[in-house]
Amino acid sequence: MVYKVIQWATGAMGKTCLRGVVDHPDLELVGVYVYGDRKNGLDAGDILRREKVGVTATNNIDEILSLDADVVIHAARLQPPYDGHDDDICRLLEAGMNVISINGNTFPGHWPESRQKRIAKAGKKGNASFMGAGLNPGFAAEKLTTAATGICLDVEKVTISETVLCHEMRSPEYVFDLLGFGSVPGEIDPNANDWAPGALLNDMFEEVVACVADRMCLPLDAIERDHRMLPAKEDLTIAAGEIKKGTVSHLDWCWRGVVDGEPVINLEIAWVMNAAHLDLSPDDLWRIRIDGTPTVNIALGLEAPAGFEGRTSVEQLAVAGSVLNSIPYVVDAAPGPVATPPSTPWQKPVS
């Protein structure tokens, strides 16, 4: 069947998803939602700097709600609080549109009960489902890591390590004001509950740890945090501005799922401006280690296809792939919040 799709938000990631929808023979673009006035009224092709496709972007939510669509790809900017887009998501669900989020939301079983009930109520009203799909959260832990444990006779510990190169991020507000790059070490406590970026990422990635534990039938005692901010060893010039020597150039995020007093699930994400504090090659997007019988080591990187041109990163391409390949699953799922399935393989288009 051909799925009717609405693209919600057209930032860098949203445009990559939009391009994927337009180019997919089994998907029909029926609407585009934009937040600002600059893109309002533009044809989707103009947003992509391509030929017109006959679908006009709007910043009027009521116009989006009036459309006939199977699924909405929700690619709004990630910002605190974690559930900050729920008002819009619930309106879409109530209107009968399934929703896929690119930012977390992969394991509703870890949400507060009030949020579970709210999304479930909206989904039931519209007979629609809400699911997360992405890379991390979405693929590295929930799919790849848990699948790899399937060849083990016994598992003692799981470690997922990710490296995110941040030097090409262009927004000074996002890089310096929100994330804390360029600050003096010690000015910000990354483990504090009242630091907005930490609170946001804790909600999102503790959900990931809980998902892995659930799929491995591990009863968690707790999820502990051990975040660090490390200084630049030299002055750095990045896309968003300058980072002075001695100010923060490296954020280590770490969540540990504790079982019987031991850290059994370790999720480690390094947000870095250069490789100064890295033990692993920044070319490896993920390193996954499963200590067990046998021990499993996976190093995974992404490469652009031959001849690929443009500023779209391979990570953005992979998120779009994960999202588009998840569309049949969210459409077929029961109404309400849905955990990301263990596998959403690419399928050859029918059309």
Give a count of the beta strands, DSSP E runs of length 2 or more.
16
> How helix-rich are the residues, as a percent range?
25-40%
CATH superfamily of the largest domain: NAD(P)-binding Rossmann-like Domain
Q: What is the C-alpha radius of gyration, as a whole number of Å?
A: 20 Å
CATH class of the largest domain: Alpha Beta
* H and E string: EHEHEHEHEHEHEHHEEEEEEEEHE
Mean pLDDT, nearest integer? Answer: 94
In DSSP terms, counting alpha (H) and pi (I) runs of 4 or more, how many helices? 9
Looking at the structure, the CATH topology of the largest domain is: Rossmann fold
By helix and strand content, what is the structural category? alpha/beta
Low-confidence stretches: none
- Which shape, going by the Cα principal axes? globular
Query: How many independent structural domains?
Result: 2
